[in-house]
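Quick check before the chapter quiz. The format below is the same one you will see on the exam, so make sure you can read both the input and the output lines.
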Amino acid sequence: MRTLGFCGDWLVTSCGTKLVAVHTKEDREAFVFDCSLAEKRPKQTKGEDTSDGAASEETGNDEVLAFAASASGRLLALTDDTKRLVLFGCEPSWRCISTRWVVRRCTALTFSQDEDELLVADKSGDVYSFSVAEAERDGELKLGHLSMLLAVVVSPDDRFIITADRDEKIRVSHRGSPYNIQAFCLGHRQFVSALHIPAGRPHWLLSGSGDGTVKLWEFESGRQLQSWELRQDGSAAEQNQDQNQNHPAPEQNAAVCRVTSSPDARHLAVLCERDSDRRLFRLDSDEGSDLGPPHRLPFPRPPLDVSFDRDGRLWVLMDSCEDPVHVFCCRQSGWQNLEGGPELSRVTERLKSHWSPAEASRSFQHLFKVSYDNVTSYLQKKQQRLEEQLEEGGAGGERREKVQEGGVLPRGPDPNGERLSRCSC
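Here is the expected output.
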């Protein structure tokens, strides 16, 4: 899975087993960390839970699954398919602070705002807390869901941990006492795959889902402020909160992969699975909670990921060895592609030597819930059976079928000369 992010002025991306960081402002050497060459897992880890079969998952391909940077850009953490959790310091130079091990493969990471805690969400629905100051200490279980967790964020005031799972739920828990739930943000109809709190709007929460919608919440109360339905044809239509049950056909929707906003919280970027368009909304920075009509950035192939830098420029990660990244800047005339700039050229040259074609694009297909309708099939077979019995036995066959189904018939002989008694099966 290829992802893109920023740690201060460092552009960070994952490329298979490698984490590659390139400085966008200065001509500095790229930092590369290869998980396949990193510290190997010890044979036995203190406190590891093997009750769910975790011990049988000793092997992995060392592919980077997720990474996250702290708000200050001084720390970065990654986790890989071998259940390795690595903490880095980024300034003044890159260094590996610690390598620890998680119980199960992780799906999302985030730092607390004061950067003393690293929260790790895993596929079983648990969130573990890892100390930053005590970099060698094992993780502690913080909270849990009944289904796979797909996203986790911490509120700007560090009071709440917000988690999203495969069962369409967004839970707002108190960080100090996670067993106390502040609110649920309910309304999505498929797994919630992305969470984001815009800068400067500490009470807002943006969420993206497999149902093809982006929703805006006031998360402390769980109140939905706005919902946008994204179509695979690139259009976006505002969905009235009171008409939330009127959904388009599922094939018109695309799973949301990423929701992120610019540092000034004026622009919102949304990426959908297998979609060649990047949608950019304008967030209302004054009173209110309106999303302006989307601006589309078309690409010849679906982008892999997207992120804003500190200057509000939009960087787009592509599956291309020649042009792995594109940069867009907002002008009065709209978003313009910055081609041939010194920063883009430097980043591209640094990435080329470590870039390889993606083995597989990001896919959420395995997360969609499948419902089975066996009632229709049963009714069809029942009707067929009734018709066959009517053809074979006439009215007597129909009466017997009703008795077998628990019906009540009056006493008396049937047309075939048999006497039927009252039956209540």
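If your answer matched, good. DSSP finds two helices and 31 strands in the chain.
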